Amino acid sequence: MYKCKIAIGASSSFGLPVSEQIVAFRKAGFEGFFTEWSEGENIGEYKRIADSVGMEYQSIHAPFRNAAIMWEQSADADMAVAELIACLEDCGRYGVPIMVVHAFKGFKEHCPNNIGVENFRKVVQRASALGIKIAFENTEGEEYLDCLMSAFASYENVGFCWDTGHEMCYNHSKDMLAKYGDRLIATHINDNLGISKYDGEIYWTDDLHLLPFDGVADWQNVTERISRCGYDGILTFELIRLSKRERHENDKYMKMPLDEYLAEAYARACRVATLKLKADKLR
């Protein structure tokens, strides 16, 4: 109907084991999903369930707690590289085509360096050998993203994952697709209220992951920009029911039964997909 599949990310805020979330997503209408990864995560079981209910395992989100360490020359950095490669191995083992990666984690002292590039190169090259695509996501520390996208511009398996909400808070509403839209291979679609602090300082509590149309995003503009990129892949939504610390914007979601929330999330996703389809027809 929309000439694209609609997917959603698993979340601990949904209050169910991931295996049960996958089934709930399918019942709500979603055709694909992504999960996060940690050591011991039962990716094989998730893939089995996905296949049984006709769901596409769109991507795996790599761990990002050590993203800043990737830019160091240390034993900890070696372990961070090994962790990303272990995630990649699961992608390859179970046929998940994309691993989403944060280039950095932190709000201070943004100084990308060649050490980090070479650490990430080990990951990118292993991904290439496995036939897996790496999608670097826009988060805080745009300098690191720019560094990696430039360093790996010639790698066919390296692309961009656009998080619409991150753009509005972490990236000060800069047009990230204007920079990386020609390499767009994945989306994390969600709404946001922008930067809350008067002085423009960014902080993690502004990253709300609201349902589309519950924030201040211009969804016609969002979908027109996606369309201009020529992107015709899966539209993946990354949504969170739980409010951030000292925030209350997501509280109403927790008051909804999960099946009701997912039904509403799917309806909002369909509205976004409809706008994208209209933009495609006008392009």
Structural overview:
With 283 residues, the protein is α/β, with parallel strands linked by helices. The chain has one domain: Alpha-Beta Barrel (TIM Barrel), CATH 3.20.20.150. 42% of the residues lie in helices and 14% in strands. It is built from ten helices and eight strands. It is globular, with a radius of gyration of 18 Å.
Kindly report how far apart the N and C termini lie. Answer: 18 Å
CATH class equals Alpha Beta
| Count of the separate structural domains | 1
- Could you describe the largest sheet, including whether it forms a barrel? 8 strands, parallel
Order of helices and strands: EHEHEHEHEHEHHEHEHH
Shape: globular
- Assess the beta-strand content as a share of residues: 5-15%
Please, how many helices?
10
Provide the gyration radius in Å: 18 Å
Going by CATH, the architecture would be Alpha-Beta Barrel
What's the CATH topology label?
Answer: TIM Barrel
Question: Which terms summarize this structure?
Answer:
alpha/beta; 42% helix; TIM Barrel; eight-stranded parallel sheet; 283 residues
Outline the fold blueprint.
Layout: E1 6-9, H1 18-28, E2 32-36, H2 43-53, E3 56-61, H3 75-94, E4 98-102, H4 114-130, E5 133-137, H5 142-151, E6 158-163, H6 164-169, H7 176-180, E7 184-188, H8 219-228, E8 235-237, H9 251-254, H10 258-282
Parallel strand pairs: 1-2, 1-8, 2-3, 3-4, 4-5, 5-6, 6-7
Quick synopsis:
With 283 residues, the protein is α/β, with parallel strands linked by helices. The protein is built from ten helices and eight strands.
